[in-house]
Structures
1.
Amino acid sequence: MQEKLKQFFDKYSPLVDRELERLLAKPFPPAITFLKPQPVTLGKAMHYSLMAGGKRLRPILVLAATQACAKPPLRSLETACAMEMIHTYSLIHDDLPAMDDDDLRRGKPTNHKVFGEAMAILAGDGLLTFAFEIIAHNAVAAKLSAADAAELVRVVAAGSGSRGMVGGQAADLEAEGWDQASLQNGNRKKAQQLLEYIHIHKTAALITASLEAGSILGGATEAQRACLREYGRSIGLAFQIADDILDVVGDKALLGKRGSDEANEKLTFVRLHGVEHSRRMARDLISQAHRALIPFGQRANILSMLADYIIEREK
């Protein structure tokens, strides 16, 4: 990781963690004034997965996008935390027996292994809905116009929902069972189209929503938002290709997981194209991401370095 990017992470990731702790422990008053705090076990389940570690990539993208639009990053801190809550909810649900059926997440037992399936589902639900409450609060605190506040909520909902991340997860579930025979019988083009659909929606959509959210809070023009959408799509796909490569060549202890996508016959870039071709695809996407940032100049240095980090990381 480049030194300036490391400094940005070292400065803002702890601030995100502290704000997440604050929001969970002492959130702002509820809009419906007679409501009481959530049940204790639900709060523990939400906290368990949210504070289990991780790169905090999506919050950093929110903050860096705000900075690229010439506004202080902390202006969007609450929304940065909300994006991490949405990401965490998706991981809790992905790990459930009915979906990916994983026992470990970041080297720790998954939420349903600790709290049971029903409470894990509710913990994910709680994080998702609380995120939108936080985003609305941030919009008011930042004095966004009504139109900009509505747009902020809209882009996050779009990136998170059935035409975004949730849709990508649904397509991913339906794509399991692609054995080598299936890939060799004239279906490679169909598999490529399906794979891109899955990862544009499952991974790139929430990454792009994070960037757009940060840019709206940063007062971006439509042209700037369009550049960040292109950047988000490119790094989102590159991120997933890098994940697919790490699943084959990475250290499982560093990754904090067992098993592999290959063993589960999941459709991946590596199964379709091999490791070396997949690496070339990722590098091409990162080049596209760099080009999309040209109009921002030096203000987008963190985003530029993040793009390189995505394909250089080891976990």
2.
Amino acid sequence: MPLVSRVRSAFEANFSRGCEAGAAVSVWQDGQEIISLCGGFRDAARQIPWQQDTLVLIWSATKGMASACTLHALDSAGLSPDTTVSEVWPEFGGGGKAGITIGQVLSHSAGLGALDRTDLSVLDHGDVVRAIEEQEPFRDAVGGPGYGPRTFGFLADEIVRRLNGGIPLGSYWRAQFAEPLGLDLWIGLPENLHHRAASMLPAKTATADGNDAFLEALAEPGSLTKRAFSSPGGLLAVSAMNTPAARSASIPSMGGIGSASSLAKFYAMLALGGVWRGRRLLGENSIAWMTTRLSQGFDQVLRLDTSFSAGFMMDPIDRSGKKIRSLLGPSLRAFGHPGAGGSLGFADPENGIGFGYVMNQMEAGVLPGERARALVDSLYASAG
């Protein structure tokens, strides 16, 4: 079966099984979009059809965008992930963090996946930054993966601001990547585009195959998992993310809103080494940092094995170098980032592929489930 037909069949099967409300998938290869599919509805009442230009929240898939900005700013300043955070952000060194590097922060191995303070909101930018400056690392999570679902965006944002005279990460994203690439992909959606945004719908069930340990930890009061996913607080309900204030807020951890085509195009540029139509948007150093594993092992927050480069998730590998799971396809060099509920974007430099899948019907679990996996498997399946 031809490639496009395989992916279309998998995409339509997700709807026929009742897994989707509205969704879109895009695949770019060697700088050209070869697959662009959408279907379903963008509202809970299932009355407004999903269009090619529908925008939707991508949750933590935003972290890939934030990481690209951080690495771009770092490389432009002649620095590397080995640079300590306190070198560019002196106040960060409080709480015994003077030796923590930017690479540790980006690879979720700095022990900063949660905050001790419980009185803060994700909308309290300045107060959250000050809390991070005072925070002591969670020692059990230092040196190995300890995912920061909410804190990560504040860390990346402040590093970018310190390197560029106070420019917020959301603005940096537009200037360095979104506008040059012509992307419908935002960290802080302009009010005049809100009418194109799909409504996020909560998961129909609280269970997910293979993620029981994570879900149990998430429900346990006081667990690092629970603390990480609720600090800083605010916008904890799915419905809260559908409000105009949340859509317009610049939240680099989880507030990205855009189309599948734009998400895939961003990763297509990365898959081509940071060059797009003859223009270099990202240096070779940055691309190397994206494809080099910096942390791997049992994640103290996500409660499963993870692997991170400088800000991007990679499929974890065993001691023999084989993948433990293949969420990002077969290539060992593939990197990207999932989002809560099932969205996924990744780059496959080996095959020149950029992939983007977005949806509004969330699913339970910490990693994308059967819908995204079916699409990725169909993309790489043998045509024989």
3.
Amino acid sequence: MLAGAQSRADVRLIDAAGGLSNVGLLQVNTDAGFGTVCGANAAAADVICRSMGYARGSVSSSPCGFYGGADLCGAPGSPVAMADLRCSGAEWSVEECSWSAPDDACMGHAYDTVVYCTASDRAGAPQGAVRLIAADGSPSIDGRGRPEILMESAWVPICSSGISSGAAAVICKSMGFSGSAGSTKCTGNGCGTVAPGVSELACSGAEPEPLQCPHEAGDDVFCAPSESIVVTCAGEGESQGRPAKESAPQLSG
């Protein structure tokens, strides 16, 4: 453990706009002020999120420099609080975990840790959950991306074949967004490499989730990855296959 690095166990997550969020750049309060974390294990996310009042968390596998199409890395020259944060998951706060001093590679902020917190204590998303994938393959954080539905423990894209005008609205609504600008066919790398598992999605727009709309799935779907759809959702929602985004707890001064 890096002795004396922390004056308090305060942690926070900062989104692309610089505001407090339940998903974003992890920062830990040290004697030198808030600094980023250069790498963390999966159990550290649970400890971090519990210390902020959430039920559980996860560490993003996508780099901070292009997380959902946004750069969440720390600003050049800003502090790096610690490296290789390791927790068992039983700790009450980060200060009970172990870490090491950041090296020169960490100071460039390319390895800063991004964490997602949720108030749900479920270990996984329910069947029929929807998530959005950005063009680079990371979770979308701007409401635009390729929607995927969780079916039989696999995330499958949606084919453009037979899709109705109301489908995009249902897809976005199921993630907590207020509306949709419609759907388009994907292009280039934004199509991914997984073939759609749902097609002929004929939503009226009133259904609460896509699988409650008439559709075809499984062996009845004959679509290539290039036929996947992309949707643009409006308002605030949770596009990572989990319950709608929760408000971040307020930090005490």
4.
Amino acid sequence: MAIYLDHNATTPTAPEVREAMRPYLGDRFGNPSSAHEHGRLARQAVDRARAEVAALVGCEPDSIVFTASGSEADNLAIKGVAMHLLGEGDHIITSAVEHPAVLAACRYLERRLGHRLTVLPVDGSGMVDPEDVRRAIEPGTVLISVMHANNEVGTLQPIAEVARTAHEYGIALHTDAAQSVGKVELAVDELGVDLLALTGHKFYAPKGVGALYVRPGTRLDSLIHGAGHEYGLRAGTENVPYIVGLGAACALAGQRLRAGAPDEVRRLRDRLHEALQSAVPGLALNGHPKNRLPNTLNVSFPGCDGETLLAGAPSVAAATGSACHSGRTEPSPVLTAMGLGAERALAAVRLSLGHQTTADDVDDAASALAASAARVALASAR
């Protein structure tokens, strides 16, 4: 199998998570809303998982709403606030490097309900200036949405500063933390966010389950109507096995964070970077040199096309951008927003490590990528 360096796209489901889920795919099949024993066992499992998610992000369990994905959590936050505040304001602030789940939700509101949207620029490292946020605020601003960590370059945004500005004006702040939860320590009160979206498959839970943190007092409308599941914010019988898996992944992530796992992943990432720098003259780092996810390395190989380079290194499974953008031939919108020219943006490769990545994996990947880069450069010179 190829060396897997695409953990920002998805992670394997951890064995501990699969084991926690197993009973709820079998005998413990009850509906959490049922009053009998089968239902009570399912409800207990959902409650336990809610507490495990809450513990990882530093909130009370009743502030966690389960969803089917991070994209749904983002949509619930953005559309939910905007729809609840119809008639009170119609202006939303976001950034140019947001995940499509955020930007598309904002554009939908702009197109269908007439909301006005301010898309903030970022600097060359992909970071928003909190002062730009302040300057963009208007009397009708109802929501600010800035991601915690970028999925392509890993840059961590100054969310706490943005939150202080938002709250000065009484505006809710939403952050997409799909890439940062489980990879770095965070707490919603320290960040100051009112809404935080996460998704399980970015940190060793299965695909198809996510959650939204909703600060007490934050008002939003439901998008899925029906019975009163999830505090009335997300109708539908809970997906008990996957919710259990999300809770188990949160508990596992907490253990790894406390044990210093991010430092080990960072050392391996930097080892990979150093090896590539030594072997590939002119290699360029994309993203903030320090304030970024410990597992993420986005680099441009001079004179190469990223897709061609990866095709020439089949022993390495990586990406030229986020998985949600794969298949396109135009430059990544994130890299373009950072001011990178088309040549450098198209030469970019995202390498994202995980807890199973070893030093041998890193060394072998660096050798394969450097060899491919040399072949591409040689072919281009002919």
